[in-house]
Records
---
Amino acid sequence: MFNEIKENVKKQHPLVHCITNYVTVNDVANMILAVDGSPIMADEIKEAADITSITHALVINIGTLNQTKVESMIAAGKKANELHHPVILDPVGAGASPYRNEITERLLKEVQFTVIKGNISEIKCIAQKTNTTSGVDANDADLVNESNIDEVIAFAKKLSQQTGAVIAITGPIDIICDKQHTYLIKNGHPIMSRITGTGCMLAGVIAVYAAANQEKPLEATACAIAMMGVAGELANDKMNVQKSGTASFRTYLIDAMSMMDMDTLTGGMKVEIQ
């Protein structure tokens, strides 16, 4: 299903500009390298647009905001739009504070995003102006399950139509939509939430895959998310065999992504297309 998507990444080795948060920046860089991309992290306003001009995709992550970084995000986002490069928004903690909500709204007004990726509470904040986020985590009351999945798909498709972006909702069931089509992915493991930065790392992977597959952002995003879910399962298996802990899990996760081939992905992914 995703063979061409992965092959394009291997051929192109996209360079990704990340304006991300300082909690997870090193892990994001290493994960991008693990999937055959190349990272550059630059959030200084004096160079943000220039750096974007030499890269193939941009990640904007609002996890650790400050006013200077926001202006860099806007400048880089506009430059990426001008060059028709994919732009990924990771609205970390959207709904956690009025300031964070204000910046999210500003970004959505001033930058055209290719993919908006977040947990269900973050996406609901964008789509419905709700504030149910628990810090940077999804609120348990918002989580997607079999009883509410059709409702969530409907609002994700509507948000895609409104924003022009692929909407990726991560959780126990990952939902990836454009205005017409939906991928449901049921991979991953709960332990992925016990280390910092799996979502931030995923945004970097999505950027790599979107950069190499600009005509297929939905499929590129679904491939990246399926890979991450399968890698989480493999990393958990290895952690259990080695009787190690969550710090080792982080390493095993990056290892699994760096070693992911089509046989491993095809054999492990649980993907449904609607």
---
Amino acid sequence: MASWAYTIKDESGSVFEGNAEADSEDVLRARLVEQGFVVLEIKATKSVKKARRVMGGVKTKHLSVMCRQFSVMVDAGVTLVRCLNVLAEQVESPKLRTVLEDVKLDVESGNMLNKSLAKYPNIFDRLFVGLIRAGEIGGNLEESLHRLSEFLEADVKLKNKIKSAMTYPTVVMCAAVGIVLFLMTFVIPKFLEMFNDLGMTELPPTTAFLKMCSDFILQRWWLLGIIVIVIVVAFKAFRKTSFGNRVCDWVGLKIPVFGPLTLKVCISRFARTLATLLSSGVPILQALETVAGTVSNDIVSDAIFETREAIREGEAMAPPLERSKLFPPMVVQMIAIGQESGALDPMLVKVAEFYEDEVDTAVASLTAALEPMLIIFLGGIVGFIVISVFMPIIAIIENMSNDNGE
């Protein structure tokens, strides 16, 4: 297959240039004419390179904006090739721009959009590709893109709320570590040197512990760095294994305070994703398989897969979800009512909205509870250091007073 550079004109008289793959010039000309363009020029170029490999993903925010713009253009009757060309020119992410340029070439060659997007799984996940495929097959691509943009916007909103809630604790913890390191490396050694000059050989237990920590940080800081690196690398390696990932996900659901919040996020994503897929015409078995890969928790994913197998065998959705002990009774009952009434999609949307509100409330409560706890924690560390420093000073003053009294 050869590569061709072309110049075309649309119905409004606008002129565009582009590149495409085709077996011959006549094949490409016929394809462009079928798409409603007037072909001005076609030139042969070098062989088309394979799709560029783009490392890393793209921010959900950029995908959401792209889907919203894509939906508007498709709804207005703009051809796919021109839509992709416009999107590639105006997206903010360089990675996404590169991918869209390759997808445009692929679509120009006659491939379906969903198959072209599926070549980049690190950017377009199974949910994204599945909705696009359903839209192409059902002839309502603009509606699928609109639903996808709404889903991504809701996902971005949820992530931003969690990130904003974690900002304050992160800043306080960084400040605490910075203060402690400053005291241990600059302040404490000065006091210890003064105690040594005053001939104080026996330090109180807390001061001796403080001296040991200060000496370790000053003299063996490299060992502390090695320990931190080993722990981080070991944890990442453990998390990459199937067993390790399951253990971490199980702990994430059971840990106090954060466990219930994690489960609420999973249920919200489960309901929102399933509702989006079902409303786009995706079969329920395929939809559940896709949902299992988007909840970001292996324990919840296993429950969804078990539900899928139960439905395959003729069972309703609610009983296997109830047997998993992960989904609250309210969720199970709403899904059962939705199936019985034939309104499962809107019922799932209500579940998603309810749990998104629950996540908001939980995050607000968690933030309110963490603020005083972190302040007390930081105050306790600084107070321990201050007391440990002043105890030898008090002992020296008492000894001096006793010597003067004699």
